[in-house]
């Protein structure tokens, strides 16, 4: 926007500067021509006075000598003609009075009319200036004294003046652009810049960002009001989302606690109840993670004294149950390479693997392959399916809360599974990577830091 505004204002400034410079350039050339003409007119008047007596007496030797000396001194040819345009005295030979410029000058001078003002001395033109004065005696024209004035030096002066004018013009244009056009452009675009900065703040999660609409143009004021309304709606939606998750998790804690107490009592009578007790504990952890995901609770402090967790071993234990689930649905689950590697003990491997395998079964296609590898300072839990995969734009959005691919929106789900996985990985300094593998499908990698001093 700023570039477009400058592209429209700068040419306007240049045009105005050129319009103002043209009369100045014409003044420089015309002034130099007039100055040269007036200075040589005085000399022509003097020669006309000196030629009056020789034209009457016919003794022109002295007049010829004066013309030659003047020519040598000022490098300006001089000649005198009578009323019949015959050359009586000259400072150089070969004068042709029938040349157009001389003929016109003699017509006016011998007719007793005032000479015309010479044209402007532009540097790209050439030629001499003709200055003629009548030789008069008692009101009768006897002849004319003519000077052919060189103009090279005056044209050089005009050229220097035009160059100075051009330099001043460029400096003026630069000064106007820097001192006026750019500040005006910034002032005009300031509301849009404020709106752009506010939009970036909203995209970074600062939904309480607002723009000022005071003193703005009606169009910008309406745009600012629309932006503020949009940001308020997003802020309220985010608040309702967090309040819903926080309220739901809070409401679930009480029945889960009560259920755990009852199941603890039953666990003394039935060993099967112990598995239910484990699931209750897992539900409790899920509720805590939902609270953290909504931002309503602070993440619990991990016990730094707990030993690291062997990610490969934890995955293999969890896969025992998932193999039965996949087999019941006639899906193939392949257990790939399992390289031991120590990770933080607070990493919820069961929940992460449950989300990845459930997504692969629902949205992908068999076979589904699970592996644990080392990659430098990271341990990588990888789950690959052979489905349609995701496009490049969708791959960048994997892990965003409530986001779902356009191909899967008709299928059941909340769009929170991978967001929880990403949150769990980030809690131990890890990350989630989604990429298309060779041969098609989708690979979800959970990369967490390797604990180097873990004793395998």
UniProtKB/TrEMBL annotation:
It holds the Pfam family HATPase_c. Its EC number is 2.7.13.3. It catalyses: ATP + protein L-histidine = ADP + protein N-phospho-L-histidine. It is found in: Cell membrane. Keywords: Kinase, Membrane, Phosphoprotein, Transferase, Transmembrane, Transmembrane helix, Two-component regulatory system. Its main location: membrane. Residues 247-452 form the Histidine kinase domain. The chain crosses the membrane at residues 161-181. Residues 186-239 form the HAMP domain. InterPro entries: HAMP_dom, HATPase_C_sf, HATPase_dom, His_kinase_dom, HisK_dim/P_dom, HisK_dim/P_sf, Sig_transdc_His_kin-like_C, TCS_sensor_his_kinase. It comes from the Bacteria. GO terms for molecular function: kinase activity. This is histidine kinase. The lineage of its organism: Bacteria, Bacillati, Actinomycetota, Actinomycetes, Propionibacteriales.
